[in-house]
Amino acid sequence: MIRERVWKTVAEELRHKFGTLLDVRDVRRVRRVAGDAWAVSVVLATSGGDIHVADLVVDDAGAIAPTLGADHLVDAVKRSLVVVSPPPSIDELADFGITVGDEDAPPSSLGLDRLLEAQVVEQPIAERAQVALSKGDRKSLFEARELLPKLLGDHERRGVTLLTMAEVESKLGEPSLSRGYLEAASREFADRFDLDALEKAAAVALQLYGREGYAASPIYTLLEQSRARLKPIGDLFDSRSFAWLPEPMRSRLLPHVRTRTLAPGETLVAEGAPSENVFVVKSGLLGVWLEKPEGGSWLVRCCFPGWLLGESSVLGGPEPRCTATLKAERVSEVFVCSAKVVRELMEEDLAFGQRIAETKQIHRIDSFFSMHETMGQLDVRVRDDILSCLQRLETFESDTLLLPANEVPTVACLVARGTIGLFADGNEVPIGVVEADSFYGVRDAIHAIAPSYAAIARAGTTVAFFEGKKLQKLCERSPEQVIAVLERLG
Q1: 386, 434, 442, 469 from 438: Cα distances, Å
Q2: Considering the domain 384-488, what is its CATH architecture?
Q3: Model confidence pTM above 0.85
Q4: Running DSSP on this structure, what letter comes out for residue 347?
């Protein structure tokens, strides 16, 4: 569904049930494991302003949850009835040296003029940090050290900020801190595949580590891996998804394949536009950009030669839409394949269709990870490592025991659809419920802890399973902050 259709669907439903009482105020895309959905803000419009009633979720089939009723409306009105403090009395103002009605009275030492003078507009943090860095003396460097971490919330400039923090620590004689920030900056640059910035970080690392130490550093590894991944593929059938197509099917497909060249920054497809083709990156680099719920978009990953994209065109049902914006991050070439022909081949070659479906599911989970409050803190390479632990995706037609009580789980679960109930021994009523888009058992699988309750998937639930031993090995080779993020899941 497109945004306009979602808006219309919810508005019509509200009009049918509530007349003109409720209105739609905002529609924004949200990422879910089972696919994209839409969050819709509903308000009660009054002469005194809007009263927020609820945020609804609409899936691609048009189903709306939760179902609004009179209780939602009453609760919203109750929340809006806050007590407004009366204006201060003349005596209270006098306590601050503010005299009302006496223009000739001299201001007191704590008078209104002094209060207004104290409201100085503070210089932006970025400018203050730049001034401190330009001075370069030790006191200014300490000031920069305090200011720079406050800029890490800027997603677009996070790598540059970390690199600057590394240089500050190096000047302050803290090589260990400097190396830590430098490695973090390099991972950011590698995520965005900013080779120029990554090479600058490598130059700093060469000075910091020395020639022998640099060759063994993670920054050297990141740079070499990034360079290697840019190697172009020779033809369409060098990509994993198309590699095993039999010769007769290749011959049928090739007349419907063309090559398109993109300039840096050029958009291949836009999020929400009709999805009509399957793409395979031949050379260069494509960026995947997702819309933020609060507006704007951000780069969540880069796709290298051999990557398949646009699978929604053959798996998205009627009138499929693009789930992300794809832009060329440098001069790039892509193979453009007719969705109609690819769909026909998928129907004939079930293994080919399965490979495309698996790619789509991985892309869905990756999009969910990138927008997840906790998982979004991890860099792309760590998210890729977690995706490599994905064992299977399974739907259960009836209530099914997933993880028994008092046994160390061999898998961790991510609920894509439905719920998992948690049951203590002998109880028929669950002590807890794991909802869709939530994790269960990650900490237990990592640390080999046996939970005291059983996990049962309710009928109709779809679960993504991650292999426990692979997650353990991932934690063994990962920094502490990665382990801390995984421990918080679920």
Answers
A1: 15, 6, 11, 20
A2: Sandwich (2.60)
A3: no
A4: H
